[in-house]
Amino acid sequence: MESSRSTLSRIRHQLPQILPSMLLCDFGNLAQEVVRLQQAGVRILHLDIMDGVFVPNFTYGMTVVQAIRGTCDMVLDCHLMMVHPERYVEQFRAAGADVITVHQEAVNDLAGIGRAIRATGALAGVALNPDTPVETVAADLNCFDLALVMSVQPGFGGQAFRPEVLAKLGELREVAPDILLEIDGGVSTQTVARCVQAGAQLLVAGSAVFRAEDYGDAVDELSQLAHNSLVAP
Ligand code: DX5
Ligand code: ZN
């Protein structure tokens, strides 16, 4: 299993990056989907783990993470949309997660779970729902390597982007100058530039990739728009 140090350098090697989210992919051909994405130049996969309690939807757990781990060497960015994530951190790491992100709204001891995730050797991430203010995590960000700003209410792909959350990226950067900033939900060719200009470095894209004819073209177009917006004022 890769160390958090090497995962971090792999992630930082090329920013901003598009992270396809494994929610709307063809699970009937999962291995082929993963290979297609790697061939399309994807370097990080975003895995949406949902428990049907924290969010009104249910997806998959450690076994699917393990199956994807066995199919590729991409960085696996696991987004745990679940209550009591502390019960599963070690199991997701053992399944092959490189980044484990938990929701601020789902935990009591935020610093504690950040430390527990890091102790497994994974990078620790904290996610904020659209209505959750940055103040709720500011004091504990030193226990995390990544902050995930939700630009939709978690649970489903294909929702409308909520631009009001963009300001949170700058607030997070203010509090934690070195933290990785990720945005998730409604990222498309219409919204990706604004996300990067607001400070997002990791851009999760579900429907923008999986509803496209060609994954490679979709990822390339989003990547191009993301990189171009870095230079544009
Ligand atoms: C929603 C998930 C997102 C979602 C993104 O709960 O966390 O990762 O799959 O899908 P789009 O890009 O279609 O909003
Ligand atoms: Zn997600």
Describe this protein's structure:
With 233 residues, this protein is an alpha/beta fold. It contains ten helices and eight strands. It has helices spanning 4-12, 30-39, 62-69, 89-95, 110-119, 135-138, 166-175, 192-197, 207-210, 215-231; strands spanning 17-22, 44-50, 75-81, 99-103, 123-128, 146-150, 180-184, 202-205. An eight-stranded parallel barrel has the order 1-2-3-4-5-6-7-8, surrounded by five helices. β2 (44-50), α3 (62-69) and β3 (75-81) form a beta-alpha-beta unit. α3 runs parallel beside α4. The longest helix has 17 residues, at 215-231. It is globular. It starts with a helix and ends with a helix. Residues 21, 46, 48, 79, 184, 204 line the site of zinc ion.
Listed once per kind, the bound small molecules are: D-xylitol-5-phosphate, zinc ion
Tertiary shape: globular
Compute the average pLDDT: 96
Order of helices and strands: HEHEHEHEHEHEHEHEHH
Class of secondary structure makeup = alpha/beta
Radius of gyration: 16 Å
* Order of strands in the sheet with most strands: 1-2-3-4-5-6-7-8
Largest sheet: 8 strands, parallel, barrel
Concise synopsis of the structure shown:
The protein is an alpha/beta fold.
Give the helix/strand layout.
Elements: H1 4-12, E1 17-22, H2 30-39, E2 44-50, H3 62-69, E3 75-81, H4 89-95, E4 99-103, H5 110-119, E5 123-128, H6 135-138, E6 146-150, H7 166-175, E7 180-184, H8 192-197, E8 202-205, H9 207-210, H10 215-231
Parallel strand pairs: 1-2, 1-8, 2-3, 3-4, 4-5, 5-6, 6-7, 7-8
Helix pairs in contact: 3-4
The chain binds D-xylitol-5-phosphate (DX5) and zinc ion (ZN).
Zinc ion is lined by residues 21, 46, 48, 79, 184, 204.
